[in-house]
Design brief:
The structure holds two protein chains of two kinds. Chain A is mainly alpha-helical. Helices cover about 75% and strands about 0% of the residues of chain A. Chain A has helices at about 1-20, 25-30, 35-55, 65-75, 80-85, 95-125, 125-135. The chains are: A mainly alpha, B mainly alpha.
Amino acid sequence: MDLQKKADHLLWLCTVALAAWAVPGAGHFLILERKRAVVIFLTITLTFAAGLWVGSIGVIDSVSGWAWYLAQMMASPAVGILAHITQSQKFISLGRPADIGQIYTSVAGLMNLLCIINAVYLAYTGRGEQIGQENA
Amino acid sequence: MPDAIAILASFTQPLEIGTNPASTLWMFPLLASIAVIYKATKLRAMLWKIFIRESILLFAVLSGFMILAAVVLNLLVWMITS
């Protein structure tokens, strides 16, 4: 019985982590932290979009900029689709716009990693649901 | 529909940003994002008033530190090169 409970809890934590990775803020949404979820979603999405707007989608380069790409991938698995599009080398980004775009998109990814860890921690301790109910 | 295509097209060409001191102003929106996300994960209770106040305070501290670092580094370069 205990093993079953532990397995269910682990599955729940994995669900929260995957949801938080797939859509920024979705992990917090699942644990009833709705306000946090909205703030996280808007901030990370806008930061990532701003990076793409400044540097174009050419800043997502899984070959020559693989280290940046690892950080960018933390924002959402959808970044993989963009990386597939930019592999054609049709979208080239160079100079200062590329720097700013890479920094914005990578920082957005790393911030989402922080949010994933936070959502899993709140789900693990059960604190998220309590606070979510307090704030509702 | 043409508007949507124009918006999407704007993501395929980089903006024109020169290598000048003004380009460092791009750090401020990023600092604001970092402050908001940090406070969104750290505050125990998510009350709007407290959250906004804390985020603005952290943004001001981060911005102040970055400006101070820029001033100190510029002074250092000026002292070395003069």
